[in-house]
Amino acid sequence: MSVKKGVSLIGLLMVVGLISCSQPSIEPLDKDAVIVAFGDSLTVGYGVSEDKSYPAILQKLSGYQVVNEGVSGEVTREGVLRFSAVLERHQPQLVVLFEGGNDLLRNVPAIEIEKNLAQMIAIAQAQQVSVLLIGMPEKKLFSNTAPFYKKLSKQWQVPLEADIVGHLMIRASMKSDYIHFNEKGYQKLAKAIYEKLQVSGAL
């Protein structure tokens, strides 16, 4: 191998290493770990039966107990108020934090949504509970995930599933109404979350 090629290879490996180190990770879950799915109607599984909700499907995929702590219509301000009690009740090792959609629909200022999500992440981390953050798209057609989700992921070093919700929202075949998924949509959502947990090191 030439010196030039050797240097190039070393440089490439360094870049790959830096990229991998920059991705937030989750400590591997214990065998008896509990996962809490915390969110609004998309966590509840509005539009399908309880066993077709994403937490129920995630439980089957992962083999872990996944507790559905979704509340239809909830905004992040309300989520903050019950978050500590949910952690106390279930003693989870991991929380899938899937909130902010109702705030965005109601035009709640981004800075307020970000503050509320940050407060929930801080509460979890103070109790050594890992967090997987699920991003929601902005309130416009074919929109990207609201920017504050990526900001929170970087600031608090929590993994973010940024794409799946926006991907499903623009596909009528995945939805039961304007903002909720159907059985196929929730299956896709659960699979994406499961794969993100694998990539992040939790599973």
Automatic annotation (TrEMBL):
<dbReference type="GO" id="GO:0004622">
    <property type="term" value="F:phosphatidylcholine lysophospholipase activity"/>
</dbReference>
<feature type="domain" description="SGNH hydrolase-type esterase">
    <location>
        <begin position="37"/>
        <end position="187"/>
    </location>
</feature>
<dbReference type="InterPro" id="IPR036514">
    <property type="entry name" value="SGNH_hydro_sf"/>
</dbReference>
<dbReference type="InterPro" id="IPR013830">
    <property type="entry name" value="SGNH_hydro"/>
</dbReference>
<dbReference type="InterPro" id="IPR051532">
    <property type="entry name" value="Ester_Hydrolysis_Enzymes"/>
</dbReference>
<dbReference type="Pfam" id="PF13472">
    <property type="entry name" value="Lipase_GDSL_2"/>
</dbReference>
<protein>
    <recommendedName>
        <fullName>SGNH hydrolase-type esterase domain-containing protein</fullName>
    </recommendedName>
</protein>
